[in-house]
């Protein structure tokens, strides 16, 4: 082949290759990085591994990342406080956290459709005098009627809102004292030691600690509430569009049974099969 003909042939092939690669390059340019913050050390919900985020929300964010090719979700693990301070400042776009409805949260951040459905239960000491009132409890009524002491809750904790809502519509009321942030382990330890009679947590959170020194001293009531959890998103024009995309995807994952699949896999019980699940799921979305 003559040199001139070879050059012409290679030029044509180069143009063809450039034409074929052009759409790929354009697609890559449109991909938007979404900075996601996650608290570490909660195996059922979210945990850091050598393979990236795992657990309920780890698997969920990987599925969302796969289904929304226009976005690249980059997860950073940090402390619980840093998750929210970073979300507020705009360092992070999304909090990969099991966040329940809270009026200030929904005001300060965008929120998605509900991503999970948690089973809330009363936690108390085994063989305590109060156990007989709590074993078959399906509401906070025995806590209020028998004047049982509850571990203080932070006013910005969604559990505080659960108790406040009960108190607003019932009498007698639960004696609830506000307090600063504390870990699940601290709260459960205070019940195990006898400092307080009860606390409340999702059943999955109790399952994580039930075989610890303090956990072996504790028992749980029957389900008293089902609470939806939502992803919180930093407010910005770009993230408003992101929230719309997330909502469409999460609605799809709910309708095709994927969220129920994750629940069965990680949460120890299928909360989506509970009698009032349809009413409880996504209940606060429009607030």
Outline:
The chain has 287 residues and is α/β, with parallel strands linked by helices.
- In sequence order, what are the helices and strands, one letter per element? HEEEHEHEHEHHHHEHEHHH
Q: Find the structural class using helix and strand composition.
A: alpha/beta
**What is the 3D shape?**
globular
Beta-strand residue percentage: 15-25%
Strand order of the largest sheet: 4-1-5-8-6-7
- Relative helix content: 40-55%
Which labels suit this protein?
single chain; 287 residues; alpha/beta; six-stranded mixed beta sheet; 12 helices; 8 strands; 23% strand; globular
Sequence-ordered SSE layout with sheet pairings:
Elements: H1 3-30, E1 32-39, E2 47-49, E3 52-54, H2 55-67, E4 71-78, H3 80-89, E5 94-100, H4 103-108, E6 110-125, H5 131-134, H6 141-145, H7 158-169, H8 184-192, E7 198-202, H9 203-209, E8 218-233, H10 237-255, H11 258-266, H12 277-280
Helix pairs in contact: 2-11
